[in-house]
Amino acid sequence: MTSCLNSDAGDQWESIHHVIGKLPGSTVILPGHDYNGLVCTTLQVEKEKNSHWMPESKDKFIDLKNSEQITTANEEIQKRVEFNRAQNPSQVPVCHGEATACGVPVKDSGAFENIDAKKYEKKLSEDRQNGVFIDVREVEEFKSGHIPGTQNIPLSEIGLNISNIPKTKTVYLSCLGGVRSSMAAKTFSYLGYPNVVNISGGFKGWLASGLNTSL
């Protein structure tokens, strides 16, 4: 939760606590300006972990915003800004000066385990009752070939399905190469899932290991 330079921090506090804060704790938030690499979060988790929820009063919140680091655009970025302005200066809003570095990564941003394809093959057969096995690739990717026994929930739809995945289960996550699934794993861990496992190497690693696939 951030604010723009010269905006009213008091109004932001009112919005956070008296508008957003009145929504159910289970409300899913899709970060548009995130420092943690998360796919989604929930209002309850943000109330517990986000520093912008911590100040108990508007005055303390304003002090927090006023203390944020000020930064300037580096030379390379500034060149591009000036280039874009020159193309059609009458329609490009001009914003001079510094900007606030209005957030930092949350320290408790989520830890998870990594296993390779061979170990995952064993988990798929040994941990069926206690595990949820999710492939976070897009639907068409999944249809073209996937690891047997996995279900498809695209990375962009994790937030829509989070309430259907019990925290009592171990959540196993795979994708094509392990990047998208690691984002999903970090998100699940951040949301309080105690047992989260990323499949390093993903579907490519599965194929490289000579294991069977499903269509």
Describe the protein in words.
The chain is an alpha/beta fold and 215 residues long. It folds into 3 domains: 9-66, no CATH class; 70-100, no CATH class; 113-208, 3-Layer(aba) Sandwich (Oxidized Rhodanese, domain 1), CATH 3.40.250.10. Helix content is 36%, strand content 13%. It has 9 helices and 9 strands. It has helices at residues 9-18, 43-49, 58-66, 75-87, 117-126, 139-143, 158-161, 179-190, 202-208, and strands at residues 28-29, 41-42, 70-71, 99-100, 113-115, 131-135, 151-152, 170-174, 196-199. Strands 5-9-8-6-7 form a 5-stranded parallel beta sheet. A two-stranded antiparallel sheet has the order 1-2. Helix 8 (179-190) links the parallel strand 8 (170-174) and strand 9. Helix 1 (9-18) crosses helix 3 (58-66). It is globular and about 60 Å long. Mean pLDDT is 84; it is low at 95-100.
Number of helices: 9
Radius of gyration, in angstroms, nearest whole number: 21 Å
Beta fraction: 5-15%
CATH class of the largest domain: Alpha Beta
Shape call: globular
Largest sheet: 5 strands, parallel
CATH homologous superfamily of the largest domain - what is it?
Answer: Rhodanese-like domain
Oligomer: single chain
Rounded average pLDDT: 84
Q: What is the third-level CATH name, the topology of the largest domain?
A: Oxidized Rhodanese, domain 1
Helix content: 25-40%
Q: How do the strands line up in the largest sheet?
A: 5-9-8-6-7
Helix-strand topology string:
HEEHHEHEEHEHEHEHEH
Total domain modules:
3
Structural class: alpha/beta
Distance between the termini: 42 Å
Strand tally is 9
CATH architecture classification name of the largest domain: 3-Layer(aba) Sandwich
Low-confidence stretches: 95-100
